[in-house]
């Protein structure tokens, strides 16, 4: 009942005076809105919901900055003002603390995690320890001994936090002004000084992240389809995006299905990643290292495949949504089986997948293959040839490529979805022999720092773009090895092989573009002008997103692939954008994809000199077949959906005690009742009260 | 309409109309009938048409009670079990609440 409450009353009065006009500024006086908030959102699959949820009107709790795990007792038992909104430093964002908070959720209104500026030393992975356990090839029927990561637990650090369900909101905040305000507010109002209980008013926070979808995918997809009401409301969307693919020899993309006489070597990598929070998924080691190596290999192969085309075709495939039960690869295999893709499974000669290759201990690479399909002697022979090609390419370089224990199954990879369809010879290149070397698998710490990519502080942005790090050098070697192997796999002449070299400058720029800032001069040159808004000054987010949209990394990879594998053609901008080489040309669009890249900025000018690139880089839908088949409880295909939401925001303010709130309400109700009584009384006794004035007037008439 | 100013025959016709109208699955008409004609039927001094009005009001009240029971039971059951019914529950709903089962 001190200064604050009187301030409140004044505010309220002012608000009543200037209703509609002045209320905005009063709102500003009460609340401090948080600028940079990243929520954890709800995802659903065939059986479960995961992620976080707030009430429709947000969750309000008294702030408590957690100092250690022992300090939890205040939140869960002894604190006098529940519910609490817990502020965590990122080292305390562990499974044990989060599960305690989850189980005491009647006293927990929400959690805000202050993102660290440096990666934790011990490793942290909120993913499961057996990624994509049920949708890979190792099912009970394929080989019971290998199912459920029985042989190797691939991600031993995985604590499964990303797959838990919390009924309170969890936000991530950058360590900046916002968190400073929060800490100050906590220090001033909420801290119990030497055992005394903190006095009202207390500092509180409100977090909004109400999710529309609930229960599981079947429920939310059904609710999407029910349109009784006037404004039907969608509650969830399937996860999905587009796969990017290209081939060294153009394939007619309009004629789907089997192509006679065509043999393709599939070179695959995955594009996406995730973390506990919605839109931070840097995926440096888990995604970027692999696909950058493959992009660089594709570039290295451009000249060799044009000058001395090998007899077999090479198909580069970049899969989206692999984190969520292999959305991209399962879709491509499904399309191949149903003659919806440019080639089919019969056309596939072999598969070479580039997995996580960014962190090589003692510069070793491991060539993983599937022991079950290798029981078939013809497959085994092809795999042996492929391994031999890889090893002979490695010996020429400064790389050692080794084969892990024969009885070990494949790590989580897109190739597993091909094997699920039929035994195809293939190898997956990884930098780990058994468990991942990646200590931050699918976490927000899987970033440039994790790959040891850092720049001297005195470099300009342009110099950073060109600064070759050790990681880039190492990845270039991997790319060269992959490129030479692919060339050999495609049957290319041995004499050509040593001329194939990946360009380390290209690798450097790509790493910088994807892990540091995509808004750099090189990316700007290669994309069409309408995509400029996709470039940002922050690391790229590799979360797959929902199906109808194309995410930023997909576009970037497509245009990079187009420029790295395609060739410049001299045609007009209009023809280029209309996918033709001249006005009469109706054929080339089936074979090629044309991009009008905006080109480099001319010196001392903002204008750019655009050019047309002809390539085979295309997008193909990466949405789980479960949604086309309407099998929302499918065990074969990914059923992940993302809930929709209306607002995601957070704000802090001071709350008065419960008693004061009640007194204020009581006084208000009292005033209202008194005024009603008074009015009634006055109107019923009006003739007495107002009689004297009226009498002379009555007398006149 | 002020019933005070209406002749008795017209009151009876009105009451009958409301009573009959209620059978078209319109329990609210019965509710209106009961509230509106309650005084006429039970409080006013006796007049010829009153007996008939009384019957209509009583029957309307009975019908109303029936509806109230049925609807309350159904709404209780529906709200309690909608989530458990899953698919059926969703198809029976006009608006589906967001974010809860």
TrEMBL record, chain A:
It is found in: Membrane. It is a single-pass type I membrane protein. Residues 39-213 form the Nicastrin small lobe domain. Residues 1-23 form the signal peptide. GO terms for cellular component: plasma membrane. It comes from the Eukaryota. The keyword Transmembrane helix applies. Keywords: Glycoprotein, Membrane, Notch signaling pathway, Signal, Transmembrane, Transmembrane helix. Pfam families: Ncstrn_small (PF18266), Nicastrin (PF05450). GO terms for biological process: Notch receptor processing; Notch signaling pathway; protein processing. The keyword Glycoprotein applies. The chain crosses the membrane at residues 662-682. SUPFAM superfamilies: Zn-dependent exopeptidases. Belongs to the nicastrin family. This is Nicastrin. It comes from Zoarces viviparus.
From TrEMBL, chain B:
GO terms for cellular component: gamma-secretase complex; Golgi cisterna membrane. Keywords: Membrane, Notch signaling pathway, Transmembrane, Transmembrane helix. It holds the Pfam family PEN-2. Its main location: Golgi. InterPro entries: Gamma_Secretase_Asp_P_PEN2. GO terms for biological process: Notch receptor processing; Notch signaling pathway. The chain crosses the membrane at residues 18-38, 59-77. It is found in: Golgi apparatus, Golgi stack membrane. It is a multi-pass membrane protein. Belongs to the PEN-2 family. PANTHER family: GAMMA-SECRETASE SUBUNIT PEN-2. This is Gamma-secretase subunit PEN-2.
């Amino acid at each position: 009942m001190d200064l604050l409450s009187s301030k409140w009353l004044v505010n309220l009065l002012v608000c009543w005076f200037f209703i509609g006009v002045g209320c905005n500024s009063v709102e500003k006086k009460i609340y401090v809105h948080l600028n940079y908030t990243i929520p954890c959102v709800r995802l659903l699959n065939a059986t479960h919901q995961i992620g976080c949820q707030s009430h429709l009107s947000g969750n309000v709790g008294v702030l408590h900055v957690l100092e250690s795990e022992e300090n939890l007792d205040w939140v869960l038992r002894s604190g006098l003002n529940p519910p609490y909104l817990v502020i965590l430093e990122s080292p305390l964002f562990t499974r044990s603390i989060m599960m305690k908070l989850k189980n005491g959720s009647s006293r927990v209104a929400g959690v805000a995690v202050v993102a660290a500026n440096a990666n934790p030393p011990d490793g942290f992975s909120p993913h499961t320890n057996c990624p994509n356990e049920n949708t890979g090839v190792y099912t009970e029927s394929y080989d019971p001994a290998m199912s459920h990561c029985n042989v190797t637990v691939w991600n031993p650090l995985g604590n499964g936090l990303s797959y838990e369900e919390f009924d309170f909101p969890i936000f991530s905040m950058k360590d900046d002004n916002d968190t400073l305000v929060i800490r100050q507010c906590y220090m001033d109002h909420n801290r119990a000084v030497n055992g005394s209980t903190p006095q009202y008013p207390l500092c509180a926070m409100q977090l909004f992240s109400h999710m529309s979808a609930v229960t599981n995918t079947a429920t939310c997809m059904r609710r999407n389809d029910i349109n009784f009401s006037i404004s039907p409301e969608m509650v969830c969307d399937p996860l999905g995006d587009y796969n990017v693919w290209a081939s060294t020899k153009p394939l007619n993309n309009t004629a789907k299905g089997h192509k006679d006489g065509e043999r393709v070597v599939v070179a695959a990598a995955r594009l996406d990643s995730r973390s506990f929070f919605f839109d931070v998924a840097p995926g440096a080691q888990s995604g970027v290292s692999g696909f950058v190596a493959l992009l660089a290999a594709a570039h290295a192969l451009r000249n060799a495949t044009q000058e001395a085309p090998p007899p077999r075709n090479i198909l580069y495939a970049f899969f989206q949504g692999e984190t969520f039960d292999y959305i991209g690869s399962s879709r491509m295999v499904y399309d191949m089986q149903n003659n919806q893709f440019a080639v089919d499974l019969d056309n596939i000669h072999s598969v070479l997948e580039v997995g996580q290759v960014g962190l090589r201990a003692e510069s070793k690479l491991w060539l993983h293959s599937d022991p079950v399909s290798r029981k078939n002697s013809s497959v085994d022979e092809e795999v042996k040839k492929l391994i031999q090609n890889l090893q002979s390419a490695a010996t020429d370089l400064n790389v050692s490529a080794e084969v892990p224990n024969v009885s070990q199954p494949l790590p989580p990879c897109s190739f597993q979805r091909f094997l699920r369809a039929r035994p195809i010879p293939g190898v997956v290149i990884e930098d780990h022999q058994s468990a991942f070397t990646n200590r931050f698998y699918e976490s927000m710490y899987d970033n440039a720092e994790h790959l040891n990519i850092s720049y001297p502080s005195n470099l300009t942005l342009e110099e950073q773009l060109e600064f070759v790090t050790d990681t880039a050098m190492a990845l270039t070697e991997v790319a060269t090895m992959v490129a030479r192997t692919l060339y050999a796999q495609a049957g290319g002449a041995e004499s050509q092989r040593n001329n194939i070299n990946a360009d380390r400058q290209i690798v450097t720029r790509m790493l910088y573009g994807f892990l540091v800032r995509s808004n750099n001069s090189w990316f700007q040159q290669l994309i069409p002008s309408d995509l400029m808004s996709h470039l940002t000054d922050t690391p790229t987010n590799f979360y797959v997103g929902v199906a109808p949209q194309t995410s930023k990394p997909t576009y970037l990879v497509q245009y990079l692939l187009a420029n790295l594998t395609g060739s410049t053609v001299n045609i007009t901008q209009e023809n280029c954008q209309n996918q033709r080489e001249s006005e009469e040309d109706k054929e080339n669009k089936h074979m090629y994809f044309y991009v009008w890249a905006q080109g480099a900025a001319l010196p001392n000018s903002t204008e750019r000199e655009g050019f047309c690139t002809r390539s085979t880089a295309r997008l193909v839908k990466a949405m789980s077949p479960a949604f086309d088949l309407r099998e929302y409880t499918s065990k074969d295909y990914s059923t992940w959906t993302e809930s929709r939401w209306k607002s995601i925001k957070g704000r802090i303010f001071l709350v008065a005690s419960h008693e004061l709130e009640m007194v204020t309400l009581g006084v208000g109700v009292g005033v209202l009742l008194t005024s009603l009584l008074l009015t009634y009384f006055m109107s019923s006794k009006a003739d007495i009260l107002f009689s004297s004035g009226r009498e002379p007037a009555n007398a006149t008439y | 309409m002020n019933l005070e100013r209406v002749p008795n025959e017209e009151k009876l016709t009105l009451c009958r109309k409301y009573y009959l109208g209620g059978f078209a699955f319109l329990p609210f008409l019965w509710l209106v009938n009961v509230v509106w004609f309650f005084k006429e039927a039970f409080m006013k001094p006796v007049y010829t048409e009153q007996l008939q009005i009384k019957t209509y009001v009583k029957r309307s009240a009975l019908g109303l009670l029936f509806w109230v029971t049925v609807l309350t039971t159904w709404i209780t059951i529906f709200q309690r079990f909608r989530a458990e019914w899953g698919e059926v529950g969703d198809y029976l709903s006009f608006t589906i609440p967001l974010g809860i089962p």
